[in-house]
Amino acid sequence: MPQILVIEDDEEVRSPITEFLVCEGYEVHxxxxxxxxxxxxxxxxxxxxxxxxxMPSQHGVETIRALKERHPDLRAIAITGYHGSYNRLxxxxxxGTRQTLxxxxxxxxxxxxxxxxFDE
Length: 120
Hints:
The chain is an alpha/beta fold.
């Protein structure tokens, strides 16, 4: 069963993502910050990381970059709630994020992004 790691500091965002992906047949692991996420990533056979870009302890761009240094084939999806000048999605794309989503994305958009990454 494909495994997904969701790194998101806001439980009100993280939990619905997890519940939806579990219903779609994925095994989903959760982390609320980079440190927890890195630990889970190293302990499990993660296929895709979905990470928030703006988190208190470390931005998702740095999380993706750090994981890609150790795992160059990392498949990641970046999510953010910020638009305009605060939008860090272009930086996430530069470090190798395969898909990006802006909150509040739909379940269909999330599933499309996950399927697209798996199809690569």
